[in-house]
Amino acid sequence: MALLHEILRVQKLGKNHGGYHGETIDIRAGLRAVTAAAQAHGWTSEIFHEAGEFKWFALHRKSGAGSKEQSVRIYISAGIHGDEPAAPLAALRLIQENRWPENAEIFLLPCLNPIGFTSNKRENAEGIDLNRDYRHPKSAEARAHIAWLKRQPKFDLYLCLHEDWESHGFYLYEQNPDGKPSLAAKMIEAVQKVCPIDLNETIEGRAAQGGIIQPKINPTERPEAFYLITQKARQGYTLEAPSDFPLTTRVNALVAAVNAAMDFNHR
Ligand SMILES: [Zn+2]
Q1: Could you tell me the distance, in angstroms and rounded to a whole number, from the CA of residue 88 to the centre of ligand 1?
Q2: Among candidates 110, 100, 154, which has minimal Cα distance to 264?
Q3: How far is residue 81's CA from residue 193's CA, in Å, rounded to a whole number?
Q4: pLDDT tens sequence across 147-161
Q5: How far is the CA of 162 from the centre of ligand 1 (A)?
Q6: Ligand 1 mean position to 165 CA, how many Å?
Q7: How far apart are CA 199 and CA 257, in angstroms?
Q8: What digits encode the pLDDT tens for the residues 22-80?
Q9: Could you tell me the pTM of the whole model?
Q10: How many Å lie between the centroid of ligand 1 and the Cα of residue 163?
């Protein structure tokens, strides 16, 4: 059976030399759309940091009352790197589509680095890569985010949405130290219908298989995901869309992966 991305001949655009040079987004308009969609679907919003014109907010969706299945707490974050526009766009689409399982309690941070998006830069205004700032945080953004995280309950699952300008397809990092039923293959299977998978055996210097990387937990690592796996959750995934492909393809990939992970009721 032909896959959609094969029929559409989705290919690398060849624009990314030394960094991301593809489409950019208006993050102010994007965040207004996120706020409107979240309000329309009954989410609550908590501002946990402000700088200049921007507010950092966490969205919360309660699990459905009367759900027979046990409530599952899921954390989703996007937009920590300002040159990865598919991530906040995927968060927006997920809120607009509103296809969450009844028993899912969702904590969603739609954009952790809005200032980065104003100049298509990975880092914040001070040049700090926020996703390397969760061990001994120096940035106001990471400090405020960690303070917010400390006020939250433990999560059953985390999903961090990213893009990689060098990759040849979608891939993901899995953290699953207790050997719980993995969601990795299910996410790859869903994504490959809409976007190529990076099948290289080495990605970002790490061993990979079928688009899945399973790094050992190293307590000296500094990304958000390592903070989450050591402090807040026992299973989680960092999702990487290939940013040399069309933006719509990358948003489709991230949305497909998140939706596949929401199938946890049947794992
Ligand atoms: Zn990233």
Answers
A1: 11
A2: 100
A3: 26
A4: 999 999 999 999 999
A5: 4
A6: 9
A7: 16
A8: 899 999 999 999 999 999 999 999 999 999 999 999 999 999 866 667 889 999 999 99
A9: 0.95
A10: 5
Cα of 134 vs centre of ligand 1, distance in Å, is 14
Token representation of residue 51 = 């700088």
- Angle among Cα 147, 254, 48 to the nearest 5 degrees reads 20
Alpha-carbon 182 to chain mean position:
17
Ligand 1 centre to CA of 80 (Å) is 7
> How many Å apart are CA 161 and CA 81, to the nearest integer?
10
Q: Give me the helices (H) in the chain, please.
A: 4-7, 27-40, 86-97, 114-118, 140-150, 184-191, 224-231, 247-261
Q: Give the residue carrying structure tokens 């904590």.
A: 107
- What is the 70 CA–ligand 1 centroid distance (Å)? 32
